[in-house]
């Protein structure tokens, strides 16, 4: 058990025994850090864990307090480490994902299965005004304005944002792309060829599987810890036994598990892959959506050999409508730029310039703080509702950032059947089949908690719980 887990367990026990009563303030983070001689980060992780379990709640400028009814709340069951069969497999999930996304896009449905954050949270009108202003200023546009690597103003703003978050990057390494999906595809194309095997987390985000499928490659799923990420021991065994062309991971707030890989483990992962000379594609689209006080590190921090191909975008933080992403491909930079030119030629200039203007002028950090706070609160709410409404034996993830919750239902529930039944009630969920090349997650679903909490969402969760329970009785 980790130190923060021990601390959380001890405080939870004190709440259960009535040492701290509902509504009472628990010791502050600094006080607990000083008295126990442990780091503030460790205490924060413990308190975040307690928040996710519904034991305590934070109040701005006041501290942490025991939630009403916390001493009789049902404990949230932990997910186990995934144990996929280490066999490389052909990938064929695109048709399932496409049909699922089409149904999720219905305006009438409660969008618990959506892969996108609530668009109402984005400053779309502000960015649109910048786009119109840019268009008025420049009446003549040419292809050369849009050629790789991208608009210099935007590239400069991206590099400055990384520096503000404690990550020094070379702006000359950045290649602007049409969203992170294109960045991932270009990076994979640069390091592997059809027929190659690529190592991925299990479960993994389906966009990674799409890239592998599109290029005629094979995926091998690696055991993954629900709080700390890919199992380095399992990955090391695979690397020793077979040729792996590349590794694809999401170290920060992985979709669908939501974990944040510890920095030491990030360092060890890069070291392991350097030893085997295997490039790693780092999908870091959620890196700005952290719940803690400190911006998470990236694999890129520990890359000294140019083997980390880092991909990100503004689609999850500013707007998905403009589809602006980027890659920092290390030693593969020239190849990625060439492939960008050959594949899509350009990235439209006006969206690049509009976002660059917003980043310079309009309080991006303030916007992000509001997003992070809202997502953290909604994550706790949805976890509490799932624990309340879903069948006994249900387990959930403990996201440290992002906006999705992974729910592992009892084995008797089939997520595709549940998806179809929920759709009949005007509710969407993300069936677990989309996140693997096997049926290992057929009893799991992914839920989106980014939307403002409402009676409709609470009713939808209660309905899903009833449908799941009914399928167990059949």
TrEMBL record:
InterPro entries: Aminotransferase_I/II_large, HTH_trans_reg/aminotransferase, PyrdxlP-dep_Trfase, PyrdxlP-dep_Trfase_major, PyrdxlP-dep_Trfase_small, Tscrpt_reg_HTH_GntR, WH-like_DNA-bd_sf, WH_DNA-bd_sf. In the C-terminal section; belongs to the class-I pyridoxal-phosphate-dependent aminotransferase family. Residues 1-69 form the HTH gntR-type domain. It comes from Paraburkholderia piptadeniae. One of its GO terms (molecular function) is DNA-binding transcription factor activity. Signal peptide: none annotated. Keywords: Aminotransferase, DNA-binding, Pyridoxal phosphate, Transcription, Transcription regulation, Transferase. This is Uncharacterized HTH-type transcriptional regulator YdcR. Pfam families: Aminotran_1_2, GntR. The keyword Hydrolase does not apply.
């Amino acid at each position: 058990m980790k130190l923060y887990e021990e601390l959380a367990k001890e405080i939870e026990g004190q709440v259960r025994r009535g040492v701290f009563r509902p509504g009472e303030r628990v010791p502050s983070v600094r006080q607990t850090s000083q008295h126990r001689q442990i780091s503030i980060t460790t205490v924060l992780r413990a308190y975040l864990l307690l928040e996710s379990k519904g034991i305590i709640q934070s109040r701005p400028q006041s501290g942490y307090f025991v939630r009403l009814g916390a001493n009789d709340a049902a404990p949230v069951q932990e997910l186990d480490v995934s144990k996929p069969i280490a066999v490389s497999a052909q990938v064929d999930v695109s048709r399932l994902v496409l049909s699922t996304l089409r149904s999720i896009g219905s305006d009438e449905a409660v969008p618990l299965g959506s892969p996108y954050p609530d668009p109402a949270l984005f400053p779309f009108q502000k960015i649109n005004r910048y786009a119109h202003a840019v268009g008025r200023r420049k009446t003549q546009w040419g292809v050369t304005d849009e050629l790789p690597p991208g608009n210099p103003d935007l590239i400069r703003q991206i590099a400055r944002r990384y520096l503000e978050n404690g990550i020094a990057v070379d702006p000359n390494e950045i290649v602007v792309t049409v969203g992170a999906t294109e960045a991932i595809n270009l990076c994979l194309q640069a390091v592997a060829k059809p027929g190659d095997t690529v190592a991925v987390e299990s479960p993994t985000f389906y966009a990674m599987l799409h890239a592998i499928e599109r290029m005629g490659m094979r995926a091998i799923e690696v055991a993954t810890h629900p709080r700390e990420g890919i199992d380095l021991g399992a990955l090391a065994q695979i690397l020793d036994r077979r040729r792996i062309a590349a590794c694809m991971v999401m170290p920060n707030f992985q979709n669908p598990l939501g974990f944040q890989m510890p920095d030491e483990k990030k360092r060890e992962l890069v070291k392991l892959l350097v030893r085997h000379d295997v490039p790693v594609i780092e999908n870091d689209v959620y890196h700005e959506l952290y719940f803690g006080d400190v911006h998470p590190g990236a694999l890129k921090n520990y890359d000294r050999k140019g083997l980390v191909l880092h991909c990100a975008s503004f689609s999850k933080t500013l707007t998905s409508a403009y589809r602006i992403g980027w890659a920092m491909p290390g030693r593969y930079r020239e190849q990625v730029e060439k492939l960008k030119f050959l594949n899509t030629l350009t990235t439209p200039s006006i969206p690049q310039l509009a976002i660059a203007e917003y980043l310079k002028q309009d309080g991006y950090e303030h916007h992000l703080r509001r997003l992070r706070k809202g997502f953290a609160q909604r994550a706790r709410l949805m976890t509490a509702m799932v624990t309340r409404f879903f069948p006994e034996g249900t387990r959930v993830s403990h996201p440290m950032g992002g906006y999705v919750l992974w729910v592992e239902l009892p084995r008797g529930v089939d997520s595709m059947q549940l998806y179809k039944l929920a759709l009949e009630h005007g509710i969407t969920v993300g069936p677990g089949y989309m996140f693997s090349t096997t049926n290992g997650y057929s009893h799991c679903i992914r839920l989106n908690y980014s939307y403002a909490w409402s009676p409709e969402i609470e009713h939808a969760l209660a309905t899903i719980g009833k449908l799941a329970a009914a399928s167990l009785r059949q």
